[in-house]
Task: inverse folding
Protein backbone atom coordinates (compact mmCIF):
# COMPACT_ATOMS: atom_id res chain seq x y z
CA UNK A 1 0.00 0.00 0.00
CA UNK A 2 2.93 2.38 0.51
CA UNK A 3 3.44 2.60 -3.24
CA UNK A 4 -0.25 2.52 -4.25
CA UNK A 5 -1.66 6.03 -4.46
CA UNK A 6 -5.36 6.43 -5.40
CA UNK A 7 -4.31 7.25 -8.98
CA UNK A 8 -2.22 4.09 -9.18
CA UNK A 9 -5.05 1.99 -7.74
CA UNK A 10 -7.38 3.32 -10.45
CA UNK A 11 -4.71 2.56 -13.05
CA UNK A 12 -4.53 -1.05 -11.84
CA UNK A 13 -8.33 -1.39 -11.92
CA UNK A 14 -8.35 0.02 -15.48
CA UNK A 15 -6.46 -3.09 -16.60
CA UNK A 16 -9.55 -5.21 -15.93
CA UNK A 17 -12.57 -2.90 -15.75
CA UNK A 18 -13.72 -0.51 -18.47
CA UNK A 19 -15.35 2.84 -17.68
CA UNK A 20 -16.92 3.50 -14.21
CA UNK A 21 -14.35 6.17 -13.26
CA UNK A 22 -16.42 7.47 -10.33
CA UNK A 23 -16.73 4.06 -8.68
CA UNK A 24 -13.01 3.39 -9.14
CA UNK A 25 -12.12 6.74 -7.54
CA UNK A 26 -14.40 6.04 -4.57
CA UNK A 27 -12.93 2.61 -3.80
CA UNK A 28 -9.37 3.86 -4.43
CA UNK A 29 -9.84 6.61 -1.84
CA UNK A 30 -11.38 4.14 0.62
CA UNK A 31 -8.44 1.78 0.20
CA UNK A 32 -5.81 4.51 0.51
CA UNK A 33 -7.51 5.85 3.64
CA UNK A 34 -6.97 2.43 5.20
CA UNK A 35 -3.24 2.77 4.67
CA UNK A 36 -3.28 6.35 5.99
CA UNK A 37 -5.13 5.18 9.09
CA UNK A 38 -2.59 2.39 9.69
CA UNK A 39 0.20 4.99 9.87
CA UNK A 40 -1.47 7.03 12.64
CA UNK A 41 -0.87 6.65 16.41
CA UNK A 42 -3.04 3.99 18.08
CA UNK A 43 -5.20 6.52 19.95
CA UNK A 44 -6.08 8.39 16.75
CA UNK A 45 -6.39 5.21 14.67
CA UNK A 46 -9.09 3.74 16.90
CA UNK A 47 -11.34 6.73 16.28
CA UNK A 48 -11.27 6.43 12.46
CA UNK A 49 -13.65 3.95 10.85
CA UNK A 50 -13.96 3.10 7.13
CA UNK A 51 -16.41 5.07 4.98
CA UNK A 52 -18.60 2.36 3.50
CA UNK A 53 -19.79 2.54 -0.12
CA UNK A 54 -23.06 1.87 -1.95
CA UNK A 55 -22.80 1.21 -5.70
CA UNK A 56 -25.92 1.73 -7.76
CA UNK A 57 -26.07 0.37 -11.30
CA UNK A 58 -27.48 -2.36 -13.56
CA UNK A 59 -26.14 -5.88 -13.61
CA UNK A 60 -22.92 -6.60 -15.48
CA UNK A 61 -21.37 -3.12 -15.35
CA UNK A 62 -18.54 -4.01 -12.96
CA UNK A 63 -19.79 -3.55 -9.37
CA UNK A 64 -18.61 -6.92 -8.07
CA UNK A 65 -15.49 -6.94 -10.22
CA UNK A 66 -14.33 -3.56 -8.87
CA UNK A 67 -14.62 -4.79 -5.27
CA UNK A 68 -12.99 -8.15 -6.01
CA UNK A 69 -10.07 -6.68 -7.94
CA UNK A 70 -9.57 -4.07 -5.22
CA UNK A 71 -9.21 -6.79 -2.56
CA UNK A 72 -6.91 -8.87 -4.78
CA UNK A 73 -4.72 -5.83 -5.47
CA UNK A 74 -3.69 -5.51 -1.81
CA UNK A 75 -4.22 -9.11 -0.66
CA UNK A 76 -7.16 -8.20 1.58
CA UNK A 77 -9.62 -10.88 2.80
CA UNK A 78 -12.78 -10.60 0.69
CA UNK A 79 -16.21 -12.22 0.76
CA UNK A 80 -19.28 -11.61 -1.38
CA UNK A 81 -22.75 -12.29 -0.02
CA UNK A 82 -26.23 -11.90 -1.46
CA UNK A 83 -28.52 -9.85 0.77
CA UNK A 84 -31.53 -11.83 -0.51
CA UNK A 85 -30.10 -14.99 1.06
CA UNK A 86 -31.11 -13.68 4.47
CA UNK A 87 -34.78 -13.26 3.51
CA UNK A 88 -35.31 -16.95 2.78
CA UNK A 89 -38.09 -18.75 4.63
CA UNK A 90 -36.87 -19.81 8.05
CA UNK A 91 -34.01 -17.31 8.16
CA UNK A 92 -35.46 -13.78 8.16
CA UNK A 93 -32.07 -12.25 8.79
CA UNK A 94 -31.06 -14.32 11.78
CA UNK A 95 -27.85 -15.67 10.22
CA UNK A 96 -26.33 -12.45 8.91
CA UNK A 97 -23.30 -12.96 11.17
CA UNK A 98 -22.23 -15.78 8.84
CA UNK A 99 -20.77 -13.18 6.45
CA UNK A 100 -18.24 -12.17 9.12
CA UNK A 101 -17.43 -15.78 9.95
CA UNK A 102 -16.83 -16.47 6.27
CA UNK A 103 -14.47 -13.48 6.17
CA UNK A 104 -12.50 -14.89 9.12
CA UNK A 105 -12.18 -18.26 7.35
CA UNK A 106 -10.90 -16.58 4.18
CA UNK A 107 -8.44 -14.48 6.19
CA UNK A 108 -7.07 -17.48 8.11
CA UNK A 109 -6.66 -19.39 4.85
CA UNK A 110 -4.65 -16.49 3.40
CA UNK A 111 -2.38 -16.30 6.45
CA UNK A 112 -1.97 -20.10 6.41
CA UNK A 113 -0.88 -20.01 2.75
CA UNK A 114 1.67 -17.28 3.55
CA UNK A 115 3.05 -19.18 6.54
CA UNK A 116 3.17 -22.38 4.48
CA UNK A 117 5.42 -20.60 1.97
CA UNK A 118 7.74 -19.49 4.82
CA UNK A 119 8.21 -22.97 6.33
CA UNK A 120 7.96 -24.93 3.05
CA UNK A 121 11.72 -25.14 2.53
CA UNK A 122 12.35 -26.33 6.10
CA UNK A 123 9.58 -28.94 5.74
CA UNK A 124 11.04 -30.21 2.47
CA UNK A 125 14.44 -30.83 4.11
CA UNK A 126 12.83 -32.84 6.94
CA UNK A 127 10.61 -34.82 4.56
CA UNK A 128 13.48 -35.61 2.17
CA UNK A 129 15.41 -37.15 5.06
CA UNK A 130 12.39 -39.26 6.09
CA UNK A 131 11.83 -40.45 2.51
CA UNK A 132 15.53 -41.27 2.11
CA UNK A 133 15.38 -43.43 5.24
CA UNK A 134 12.31 -45.25 3.84
CA UNK A 135 13.97 -45.79 0.44
CA UNK A 136 17.15 -47.15 2.04
CA UNK A 137 15.10 -49.47 4.28
CA UNK A 138 13.22 -50.81 1.23
CA UNK A 139 16.39 -51.31 -0.79
CA UNK A 140 18.16 -52.97 2.13
CA UNK A 141 15.50 -55.67 2.22
CA UNK A 142 16.11 -56.36 -1.48
CA UNK A 143 19.91 -56.07 -1.48
CA UNK A 144 21.12 -57.35 1.87
CA UNK A 145 24.79 -57.64 0.88
CA UNK A 146 25.26 -54.03 -0.27
CA UNK A 147 26.85 -51.86 2.45
CA UNK A 148 24.46 -49.38 4.03
CA UNK A 149 26.65 -46.35 3.25
CA UNK A 150 26.72 -47.20 -0.47
CA UNK A 151 22.96 -47.80 -0.55
CA UNK A 152 22.33 -44.47 1.14
CA UNK A 153 24.62 -42.55 -1.23
CA UNK A 154 23.03 -44.18 -4.30
CA UNK A 155 19.53 -43.52 -3.01
CA UNK A 156 20.38 -39.88 -2.23
CA UNK A 157 21.63 -39.29 -5.77
CA UNK A 158 18.63 -41.06 -7.34
CA UNK A 159 16.18 -39.11 -5.20
CA UNK A 160 17.80 -35.82 -6.17
CA UNK A 161 17.59 -36.70 -9.89
CA UNK A 162 13.91 -37.74 -9.62
CA UNK A 163 14.48 -41.37 -10.65
CA UNK A 164 12.65 -42.85 -7.65
CA UNK A 165 9.35 -40.91 -7.86
CA UNK A 166 7.31 -44.04 -8.67
CA UNK A 167 9.12 -46.38 -6.25
CA UNK A 168 6.87 -47.94 -3.58
CA UNK A 169 8.00 -47.29 -0.01
CA UNK A 170 6.52 -47.89 3.43
CA UNK A 171 5.99 -44.69 5.43
CA UNK A 172 4.25 -43.62 8.63
CA UNK A 173 1.43 -41.16 7.93
CA UNK A 174 -0.75 -39.38 10.44
CA UNK A 175 -4.23 -40.76 11.03
CA UNK A 176 -6.84 -38.14 11.81
CA UNK A 177 -9.54 -38.87 14.37
CA UNK A 178 -12.88 -38.92 12.63
CA UNK A 179 -15.61 -36.83 14.17
CA UNK A 180 -18.82 -35.04 13.43
CA UNK A 181 -19.81 -31.39 13.36
CA UNK A 182 -22.00 -30.34 16.26
CA UNK A 183 -23.79 -27.00 16.52
CA UNK A 184 -22.50 -25.05 19.50
CA UNK A 185 -24.47 -21.88 18.90
CA UNK A 186 -26.33 -20.27 16.02
CA UNK A 187 -24.20 -20.23 12.88
CA UNK A 188 -21.24 -21.99 14.54
CA UNK A 189 -20.33 -25.66 14.20
CA UNK A 190 -17.49 -27.44 15.94
CA UNK A 191 -15.94 -30.63 14.61
CA UNK A 192 -15.41 -32.97 17.59
CA UNK A 193 -12.75 -34.86 15.63
CA UNK A 194 -10.70 -31.73 15.01
CA UNK A 195 -10.79 -30.86 18.72
CA UNK A 196 -9.37 -34.28 19.69
CA UNK A 197 -6.80 -34.02 16.89
CA UNK A 198 -5.51 -30.81 18.48
CA UNK A 199 -5.29 -32.03 22.10
CA UNK A 200 -4.34 -35.71 21.68
CA UNK A 201 -1.05 -37.10 20.33
CA UNK A 202 -1.19 -37.90 16.65
CA UNK A 203 -1.62 -41.55 15.70
CA UNK A 204 0.33 -42.87 12.76
CA UNK A 205 -0.36 -45.70 10.34
CA UNK A 206 2.05 -47.53 8.04
CA UNK A 207 1.12 -47.24 4.38
CA UNK A 208 2.69 -48.27 1.08
CA UNK A 209 2.91 -45.26 -1.23
CA UNK A 210 4.99 -44.02 -4.14
CA UNK A 211 7.75 -41.57 -3.27
CA UNK A 212 5.85 -38.84 -5.12
CA UNK A 213 2.61 -39.38 -3.17
CA UNK A 214 4.44 -39.78 0.14
CA UNK A 215 6.31 -36.51 -0.36
CA UNK A 216 3.09 -34.56 -0.96
CA UNK A 217 1.36 -35.95 2.11
CA UNK A 218 4.36 -35.71 4.40
CA UNK A 219 5.12 -32.12 3.41
CA UNK A 220 1.54 -31.14 4.21
CA UNK A 221 1.81 -32.83 7.62
CA UNK A 222 5.22 -31.29 8.35
CA UNK A 223 4.16 -27.79 7.33
CA UNK A 224 1.10 -27.99 9.59
CA UNK A 225 3.34 -29.17 12.43
CA UNK A 226 5.74 -26.24 11.99
CA UNK A 227 2.97 -23.62 12.06
CA UNK A 228 1.72 -22.23 15.37
CA UNK A 229 -2.06 -22.59 15.10
CA UNK A 230 -2.81 -20.13 17.87
CA UNK A 231 -0.68 -17.47 16.19
CA UNK A 232 -2.25 -18.35 12.83
CA UNK A 233 -5.78 -17.81 14.14
CA UNK A 234 -4.81 -14.56 15.86
CA UNK A 235 -3.20 -13.15 12.71
CA UNK A 236 -6.16 -14.26 10.61
CA UNK A 237 -8.68 -12.53 12.88
CA UNK A 238 -6.55 -9.37 13.04
CA UNK A 239 -6.24 -9.23 9.25
CA UNK A 240 -9.99 -9.71 8.82
CA UNK A 241 -10.62 -6.91 11.34
CA UNK A 242 -8.20 -4.39 9.87
CA UNK A 243 -8.18 -5.23 6.15
CA UNK A 244 -11.34 -7.26 5.47
CA UNK A 245 -13.81 -6.28 2.74
CA UNK A 246 -17.40 -7.56 2.70
CA UNK A 247 -19.36 -7.05 -0.52
CA UNK A 248 -23.13 -7.15 0.01
CA UNK A 249 -24.81 -7.64 -3.36
CA UNK A 250 -28.50 -7.23 -4.22
CA UNK A 251 -29.02 -4.85 -1.30
CA UNK A 252 -31.83 -3.16 -3.26
CA UNK A 253 -33.87 -6.37 -2.86
CA UNK A 254 -34.13 -5.82 0.90
CA UNK A 255 -35.08 -2.14 0.56
CA UNK A 256 -38.72 -1.40 1.39
CA UNK A 257 -40.92 1.65 1.62
CA UNK A 258 -41.91 0.80 5.19
CA UNK A 259 -45.23 -0.21 6.69
CA UNK A 260 -47.31 -3.13 5.46
CA UNK A 261 -46.72 -6.73 6.38
CA UNK A 262 -45.24 -9.94 5.03
CA UNK A 263 -42.23 -9.47 2.71
CA UNK A 264 -41.90 -5.76 3.59
CA UNK A 265 -41.45 -6.55 7.27
CA UNK A 266 -39.04 -9.39 6.45
CA UNK A 267 -36.86 -7.10 4.31
CA UNK A 268 -36.74 -4.41 6.96
CA UNK A 269 -35.91 -7.08 9.54
CA UNK A 270 -32.88 -8.14 7.48
CA UNK A 271 -31.72 -4.52 7.29
CA UNK A 272 -31.97 -4.21 11.06
CA UNK A 273 -29.97 -7.41 11.51
CA UNK A 274 -27.25 -6.20 9.13
CA UNK A 275 -27.11 -2.78 10.84
CA UNK A 276 -25.15 -3.72 14.01
CA UNK A 277 -22.56 -5.58 11.93
CA UNK A 278 -22.00 -2.53 9.73
CA UNK A 279 -22.06 -0.17 12.73
CA UNK A 280 -19.49 -2.25 14.58
CA UNK A 281 -19.96 -5.12 17.00
CA UNK A 282 -18.14 -8.18 18.32
CA UNK A 283 -18.97 -11.55 16.80
CA UNK A 284 -17.92 -14.92 18.14
CA UNK A 285 -16.36 -17.37 15.69
CA UNK A 286 -14.82 -20.78 16.30
CA UNK A 287 -11.39 -19.14 15.99
CA UNK A 288 -12.11 -16.35 18.48
CA UNK A 289 -13.94 -13.03 18.71
CA UNK A 290 -13.75 -10.46 15.90
CA UNK A 291 -14.71 -6.79 15.93
CA UNK A 292 -16.43 -5.52 12.78
CA UNK A 293 -15.76 -1.79 13.41
CA UNK A 294 -12.97 -1.51 10.83
CA UNK A 295 -14.21 -3.89 8.12
CA UNK A 296 -14.95 -2.09 4.83
CA UNK A 297 -18.48 -2.80 3.59
CA UNK A 298 -19.34 -2.27 -0.07
CA UNK A 299 -23.03 -2.69 -0.93
CA UNK A 300 -24.41 -2.86 -4.46
CA UNK A 301 -27.73 -3.10 -6.24
CA UNK A 302 -29.53 -2.16 -9.42
CA UNK A 303 -32.21 -0.14 -7.57
CA UNK A 304 -34.64 -0.44 -10.52
CA UNK A 305 -37.75 -0.74 -8.36
CA UNK A 306 -36.57 0.63 -5.02
CA UNK A 307 -34.26 3.55 -4.21
CA UNK A 308 -31.28 3.93 -1.88
CA UNK A 309 -33.55 6.22 0.16
CA UNK A 310 -35.88 3.23 0.80
CA UNK A 311 -33.27 1.62 3.05
CA UNK A 312 -33.80 2.35 6.75
CA UNK A 313 -32.15 5.69 7.70
CA UNK A 314 -29.74 4.07 10.16
CA UNK A 315 -28.36 1.79 7.44
CA UNK A 316 -28.17 4.63 4.92
CA UNK A 317 -26.10 6.60 7.41
CA UNK A 318 -23.54 3.81 7.56
CA UNK A 319 -22.95 4.04 3.77
CA UNK A 320 -21.96 7.68 3.31
CA UNK A 321 -20.33 7.21 -0.10
CA UNK A 322 -22.79 6.61 -2.94
CA UNK A 323 -21.67 5.96 -6.49
CA UNK A 324 -23.80 5.50 -9.59
CA UNK A 325 -22.37 3.26 -12.30
CA UNK A 326 -23.17 3.95 -15.95
CA UNK A 327 -24.78 1.72 -18.57
CA UNK A 328 -22.28 0.36 -21.04
CA UNK A 329 -22.17 1.96 -24.49
CA UNK A 330 -21.04 0.56 -27.83
CA UNK A 331 -17.57 2.08 -27.27
CA UNK A 332 -17.39 0.48 -23.83
CA UNK A 333 -18.20 -2.94 -25.28
CA UNK A 334 -15.48 -2.50 -27.90
CA UNK A 335 -12.96 -1.62 -25.18
CA UNK A 336 -14.09 -4.64 -23.11
CA UNK A 337 -13.39 -6.87 -26.12
CA UNK A 338 -9.94 -5.42 -26.78
CA UNK A 339 -8.31 -3.73 -23.79
CA UNK A 340 -8.50 -5.69 -20.48
CA UNK A 341 -5.80 -8.21 -19.63
CA UNK A 342 -8.54 -10.81 -19.23
CA UNK A 343 -10.57 -9.72 -22.28
CA UNK A 344 -13.12 -12.30 -23.38
CA UNK A 345 -11.58 -12.48 -26.87
CA UNK A 346 -8.22 -13.39 -25.30
CA UNK A 347 -9.92 -16.02 -23.16
CA UNK A 348 -11.49 -17.76 -26.17
CA UNK A 349 -8.23 -17.47 -28.13
CA UNK A 350 -6.36 -19.26 -25.33
CA UNK A 351 -9.07 -21.91 -24.93
CA UNK A 352 -9.15 -22.86 -28.61
CA UNK A 353 -5.36 -22.73 -28.91
CA UNK A 354 -5.39 -25.92 -26.79
CA UNK A 355 -7.00 -27.66 -29.79
CA UNK A 356 -4.55 -26.02 -32.25
CA UNK A 357 -7.09 -23.43 -33.46
CA UNK A 358 -5.73 -19.89 -33.73
CA UNK A 359 -8.35 -17.13 -33.69
CA UNK A 360 -7.54 -13.84 -35.39
CA UNK A 361 -10.04 -11.13 -34.37
CA UNK A 362 -10.20 -8.13 -36.70
CA UNK A 363 -11.03 -4.63 -35.50
CA UNK A 364 -14.19 -4.21 -37.61
CA UNK A 365 -15.54 -7.54 -36.41
CA UNK A 366 -15.21 -6.50 -32.78
CA UNK A 367 -16.90 -3.17 -33.51
CA UNK A 368 -19.87 -5.06 -34.96
CA UNK A 369 -19.99 -7.37 -31.93
CA UNK A 370 -20.03 -4.30 -29.67
CA UNK A 371 -22.90 -2.84 -31.70
CA UNK A 372 -24.88 -6.09 -31.40
CA UNK A 373 -24.27 -6.21 -27.63
CA UNK A 374 -25.49 -2.63 -27.16
CA UNK A 375 -28.59 -3.28 -29.26
CA UNK A 376 -29.46 -6.51 -27.43
CA UNK A 377 -29.14 -4.80 -24.05
CA UNK A 378 -31.37 -1.93 -25.20
CA UNK A 379 -34.15 -4.10 -26.61
CA UNK A 380 -34.00 -7.09 -24.25
CA UNK A 381 -32.94 -7.38 -20.63
CA UNK A 382 -29.88 -5.26 -19.85
CA UNK A 383 -27.19 -7.79 -18.89
CA UNK A 384 -24.28 -5.37 -19.11
CA UNK A 385 -20.96 -6.95 -20.09
CA UNK A 386 -22.41 -10.42 -19.49
CA UNK A 387 -24.22 -10.02 -22.81
CA UNK A 388 -20.85 -10.52 -24.51
CA UNK A 389 -20.60 -14.06 -23.12
CA UNK A 390 -23.88 -14.94 -24.81
CA UNK A 391 -22.79 -13.35 -28.11
CA UNK A 392 -19.34 -14.98 -28.12
CA UNK A 393 -20.83 -18.42 -27.47
CA UNK A 394 -23.15 -18.02 -30.47
CA UNK A 395 -20.33 -16.64 -32.63
CA UNK A 396 -17.83 -19.42 -31.87
CA UNK A 397 -20.20 -22.35 -31.34
CA UNK A 398 -19.41 -24.08 -34.66
CA UNK A 399 -15.65 -23.56 -34.33
CA UNK A 400 -15.62 -24.80 -30.75
CA UNK A 401 -17.68 -27.88 -31.64
CA UNK A 402 -15.45 -28.92 -34.56
CA UNK A 403 -12.10 -28.25 -32.86
CA UNK A 404 -10.51 -31.60 -31.96
CA UNK A 405 -6.79 -30.86 -31.87
CA UNK A 406 -5.90 -33.00 -34.90
CA UNK A 407 -4.56 -30.19 -37.12
CA UNK A 408 -3.39 -26.60 -36.90
CA UNK A 409 -5.96 -24.06 -38.07
CA UNK A 410 -6.08 -20.28 -38.28
CA UNK A 411 -9.55 -18.75 -38.43
CA UNK A 412 -10.01 -15.09 -39.21
CA UNK A 413 -12.90 -13.50 -37.33
CA UNK A 414 -13.76 -10.61 -39.65
CA UNK A 415 -16.94 -8.62 -40.24
CA UNK A 416 -18.26 -11.13 -42.80
CA UNK A 417 -17.72 -14.01 -40.36
CA UNK A 418 -19.68 -12.15 -37.66
CA UNK A 419 -22.54 -11.42 -40.09
CA UNK A 420 -22.73 -15.05 -41.20
CA UNK A 421 -22.74 -16.48 -37.67
CA UNK A 422 -24.80 -13.78 -35.97
CA UNK A 423 -27.31 -13.53 -38.80
CA UNK A 424 -30.40 -14.04 -36.64
CA UNK A 425 -29.45 -11.40 -34.07
CA UNK A 426 -28.45 -8.88 -36.74
CA UNK A 427 -31.77 -9.32 -38.58
CA UNK A 428 -33.65 -8.76 -35.31
CA UNK A 429 -31.58 -5.61 -34.74
CA UNK A 430 -32.28 -4.30 -38.26
CA UNK A 431 -36.04 -4.94 -37.96
CA UNK A 432 -36.33 -3.12 -34.63
CA UNK A 433 -35.60 0.27 -36.22
CA UNK A 434 -38.93 -0.01 -38.07
CA UNK A 435 -40.98 -0.90 -34.99
CA UNK A 436 -42.78 2.05 -33.44
Result:
Amino acid sequence: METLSPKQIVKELDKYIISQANAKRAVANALRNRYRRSQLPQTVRDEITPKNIIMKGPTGVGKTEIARRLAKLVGAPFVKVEATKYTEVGYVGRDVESMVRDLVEVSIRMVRDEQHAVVQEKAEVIVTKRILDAVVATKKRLATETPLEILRKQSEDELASGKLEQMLIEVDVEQAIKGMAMPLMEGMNFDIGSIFNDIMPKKTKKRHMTVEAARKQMITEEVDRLIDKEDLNQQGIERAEQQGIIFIDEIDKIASKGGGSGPEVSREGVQRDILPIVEGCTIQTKHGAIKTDYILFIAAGAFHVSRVQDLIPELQGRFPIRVELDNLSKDDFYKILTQPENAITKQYTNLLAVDKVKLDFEKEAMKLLAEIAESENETNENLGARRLHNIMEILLEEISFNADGTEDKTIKIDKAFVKDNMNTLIKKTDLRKYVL
